[in-house]
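Dear all,

This email documents one entry for the complex benchmark we are building for the journal club exercise. For each entry we list the sequence lines for every component of the assembly. Then comes the predicted three-dimensional structure of the complex as a token string, followed by one or two observations. Please use this as the template for your own entries, and keep the labels exactly as they appear.
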Amino acid sequence: MRKKIEIEQIRPMDIEKRSFEIISEELGEREKLLKPGTELIVKRCIHTSADFDYAENLYFSEGCVEQALAAIREGASIVTDTQMARSGINKNVLKRYGGEVLCFMSDKDVAEEAKRRGVTRAVVSMEKAASLNRPLIFAIGNAPTALIHLSQLIDEKRIDPRLVIGVPVGFVNVVASKELIIDTGVPCIVARGRKGGSNIAACICNALLYMLTDNRGY
Amino acid sequence: MRKKIEIEQIRPMDIEKRSFEIISEELGEREKLLKPGTELIVKRCIHTSADFDYAENLYFSEGCVEQALAAIREGASIVTDTQMARSGINKNVLKRYGGEVLCFMSDKDVAEEAKRRGVTRAVVSMEKAASLNRPLIFAIGNAPTALIHLSQLIDEKRIDPRLVIGVPVGFVNVVASKELIIDTGVPCIVARGRKGGSNIAACICNALLYMLTDNRGY
């Protein structure tokens, strides 16, 4: 005999709203500890991962959300270090403000130069981004080497990002790369510790875009 | 004064290997509790998420790994429920065996039919996949409605997947959808509980592909 498994009847359009209600319920008092203005970003990260660690591990530099929203309004583009993150970012909304999503990781010239120099493609991708003369937001969900190299480029004043979303995931140099980017003083949103990923990078971008464009209120 | 942040010097090609060593070290005795033959999949999920919960929440139906590898060798294609998962799956390796990655979620006919019927696009996508006459692996990282509908199609013998990777993430019907798919008796790999995601769906596909094609041994 098959066991009985309960499915909640819910309209497709209501699923996300209900999810955010559950997240708020389970956060409880912890929601009040979040930095004002960052709640929607934190809750969207939890929604994307079902991992409440994001209620504690997200670092927001002072004023970074307002700075990021201003940058998007001015037409900033988003540079990512994975095709997955590029795929997950809501490009239609970004386009309304004049921005686009860029990822140089699969570019042939990037691969060749990385091989020649014995560095990661992420390092070369960051240099390629630094050569662009326009406002940029970086969404790094995979490569700590991207974040490490970005912090060097920032220190050397070769690049001046409007926001760095520093959420690579993993075990080698990931924790340190995030502390380095915080230490530069650049506007940043960082998932401290080992956790993160392309999904989290895309989700933080989307949270910012939805804050600008709709009235979901969650 | 800036604090000192230590960066480990490591060649790009050695980063993944070192990451898997750290995962094995931290798993310790728990690695021996994993179902033989599933270790590489479990460790790749931990590598993708930095979340050791995957050492405990992954369910593998009896013989599913061998069945999946046989299906890929026979040219099975992979159907996903997000463009992000499609983007993350190693399509070059899959192509060597004759398979491709399919995602119908952005198809215009799917969107229109979903709206007309008041169901999710994921439901219509699963029906579109069911109409294909070829061996299929499903990699569901987002929509519990996809998994719920798949289990109906399986019960009605309208589809006979070679493997279902059931790893939607979230809060509404996610846990139940996973139990439903396990209950069908179809070959499946499922992340029990709320966790999962497009990144986990892609990562399990890639773990299977790498088991077939290389000798990394991690």
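Observations: The first strand of chain A starts at residue 58 and ends at 60. The radius of gyration of chain A is 18 Å.
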